Amino acid sequence: MSIALLFIIPIVLSVASPFGFRLLGKNWSKLVSFFILIMAGLVILLLDLASIGSPQTLSFDWIPRLGLSVTLRADSFGLFMALIITVIGAGVFSYTSEYMGDDPRTGTITGWLLLFMASMLGVVLADNIVLLFVSWELTSISSYILIGTNNHDPKARAGAKTALLVTSIGGLSLLGAIVLLGVATGVWNLSEMPAIHNHPWAASIFILVCLAAFSKSAQWPFCFWLPGAMAAPTPISAYLHSATMVKAGVFLLARMHPILSEHAAWTPVLVFFSAASMIVVIISIPKATDLKSLLAHSTVGALALMVCLIGIGTPYALNAMTVFLLAHACYKAPLFLVAGSIDHAVHNRDINALGGLAKKMPYTMLSACIAGISMAGIPPMLGFAAKEMILEAGLSYAPWLITLITILATAFVMVACCVVLIPAFGKNSCLVEKAHESPWSMLAPMLLIGIIGLACGLRLEMIENHLVSPAVISLGVKPAGLGLWHGFTLYLALSSLAVLAGWLAYTQRQALYKIIPVLPSGAVIHEVIWNTVLSFGRSLTQIIQNGSLTSYLGTTIIVTCALIFYAWVQVDAPVRPSLVQKITLAELSAGLLIMASSLATAFARKRLPAIAGLGAMGMGMTLFFIVSQAPDLALTQFLVEILSVVLLVVAFRHLPDFVGEPIKIQSGRLIISALTGLTMMVLTLVALSTEYGDRVSLWYGLNALRQGHGANVVNVILVDFRALDTLGEITVLSIAALGVGVLMGGLKQIKTKKEPT
To answer: Where are the domains of the chain?
Structure first.
């Protein structure tokens, strides 16, 4: 029941959120924060069960005929992520209460945040891969709504549209991956899925999984969408883009590690794209001037490090990834909240305009310092232990290349850390006078989450035993020992070098600003992609939707015939020679009449000759029915043809004169007509050559008199065995006759009005 409560609580609160806010005002968000803390307690209880090898599961049938069920499995790694989601979520909801205040949108925003939380919990706790995909898409939809909260702001709308566009690409890729995985393995639960690196579809599945993970976690070439999403209110940015949604891609790669990691492309592809993302961060950070944008770029770098560690794939690298994932959540969420508090106080996030806020906002700056020290990788914070593990894992894989890029990336993260702390230690600015300290409901989450990072660094043994080791064991690797101090090692030297390089880069940032090229912003990249897609769509529309009905019909007929002939060749359906029978003179005469009248209709330059040719074609069909000893069908065909000719003559005589196209222009249509006739002939012969078991005609012949009480088999079929078909045909003909009658009446009224009075 505990695992069910993790979904029941946020969903119920989400539905009740608009009403709760109307009733309690901003205190509603504080009440929500309390319930989320209860959920965090449930996660801790489930962690105790999972750590002793008894993960709680919940399963019930979803689509029994397809063998699909809703299966949730609270293993240690999923609960590790769930603990981050709930603890950070509790802090964000507490922060929201004062940050949004009495804004009427608060109830709606809180509701969507709760729905997003439930979706993220579905991603990390889903065992069934179809449920994983559904939860994945719900995070994309809810994040789109949340990013576009300020819908009056063009930047917010553009950021939301960009995020949805990119994550939708990932969602479609994930859909393809899970379908291939399920079909390839015959298993739809992750806990039961075997390694498939030798399967013929392994490469395709790996590519699709990478597209899904890279798009969600803003890895190159999709890293442009994350900075654009910073137009959302700070609680949304802090929750979605520091601790939860952007880590969904990392989580997916970690889940797929036991299944796909032995594929030859796993390590080189992940390492290459993560290195490319780190290079983008190195170039982008010195150019960023907005606090939230700066933190977004550093988040891209942190996610790239996690992807790189998963790509390296050694047990130590996965241990380092898990520790860094926790450390990143403990320092990045408070820093986002600090940026929001500064913006809330002085209504400005430009680092060039900020400074001297430490006296007016001491607790906010204290939170920034605690989180910033961890971000820079300075002891005794958890970020220091994570950085040393990252450097050690990088050295074990590629002693020079990856280590160099890692050092540069962490150095420029140090630059971001120093820039974020400018408001605390920089020179006074004109904005200082407007500054004021945030309320405690905003300060408490910043301080407490940062202090958690400090406590984790000081109590690494406890973190290892209760969080990290169970999490990595559930990924199929052995835990590695954690320690804050390992003596004077090469990794300590490289860590110190990264801090020193970052400090030097910060002091020389003006020179770097001039040297480093400017990358196009996310908005520019989005506009280029969007305009390219629209241009391609317009070009394609001009080709396939040119306004010509003849062109549409011709294209449809040609494609249909080509597919039929392709299928005929592929299945190798022979035509029995016994079907070719002697043609009688009567059948030949009827066939020649139909062919001649068809050509006459096609080449007629006037309407009346065309109608006459069409009637002659019907008379040819009537002869065929007579020759085939079906007088009732012949009589029906004869009457229908007479009625059709009369109606066409009556209708067309009111239309303006029409002159048909020259014969040369009709050649293409003749070819299409011949192709259609040939296709229908092949289909008929193949159908007659195929044995389907007992023929239904025998059943009709035996039961027409016995059950239908009629000697005429055709009539019994029409009015008894297939009565509903006949009723439908009569209804259609009645509606058509009614329409013709209305049109004729309208024409008479128009003619009467035109007559002189």
So the answer is: 265-507
Single-letter amino acid code for the residue at 505: A
> What is the C-alpha separation between 613 and 599, in angstroms, rounded?
8
Q: Is 443 exposed, middle or buried (0-12, 13-18, 19+ CB in 10 A)?
A: buried
Other CB atoms within a 10 A radius of the CB of residue 65 amount to 6
| Rounded alpha-carbon distances, angstroms, from residue 729 to 486, 683, 717, 742 | 87, 25, 14, 20
Q: Indicate the DSSP class of residue 290.
A: B
Tokens 């409901």 correspond to what residue?
441
The secondary structure of 576-612 as a DSSP string is: -GGG--PPPHHHHHHHHHHHHHHHHHHH-SSHHHHHH
Whether the bond between 423 and the residue before it is cis, its omega within 30 degrees of 0, is: no
CA distance 324 to 447: 20
With contact defined as beta carbons under 8 Å apart, do 178 and 130 qualify? yes
Measure the CA–CA gap between 85 and 36, rounded to whole angstroms: 10
* CA of residue 492 relative to chain centroid, distance: 42
CA atoms 538, 540, 543, 546: torsion sign: negative
Could you list the mean pLDDT of each consecutive 10-residue stretch along the chain, which spans 757 residues?
A: 85 92 89 92 89 83 74 90 92 88 86 93 91 92 88 82 87 93 89 87 93 90 80 84 82 92 90 87 79 84 89 89 90 88 84 81 88 84 85 75 71 74 71 81 89 85 86 86 73 78 75 70 72 86 78 87 87 66 79 86 79 87 84 83 82 68 68 88 81 74 82 83 85 84 67 55
What is the pTM for the complete model shown? 0.75
> Quick one: which of 207, 225, 332, 199 has its CA closest to 270?
207
Under a CB-based contact definition with an 8 Å cutoff, are residues 50 and 10 in contact?
no
The DSSP element (H or E) to which 59 belongs, if any, is: strand 56-63
Query: Is the distance from CB of 662 to CB of 622 less than 8 angstroms?
Result: no
**Is the backbone peptide bond immediately before 221 cis, with ω within 30 degrees of 0?**
yes
Helix (H, G, I), strand (E, B) or coil at 69: strand
Query: What residue type is assigned to position 317 of the chain?
Result: A
- Looking at residue 491, its amino acid is Y
Total Cβ atoms within 10 A of residue 67: 12
C-alpha pair distances (Å), 60 with each of 67, 157, 320: 11, 39, 36
Task: From residue 19, give the alpha-carbon distance in Å to each of 107, 108, 149, 243, 673.
Answer: 7, 9, 19, 28, 65
DSSP 8-state assignment for residue 482: -
Cα 648-651-656 angle, rounded to 5 deg: 115
Cα separation, 235 vs 343, in Å, equals: 12
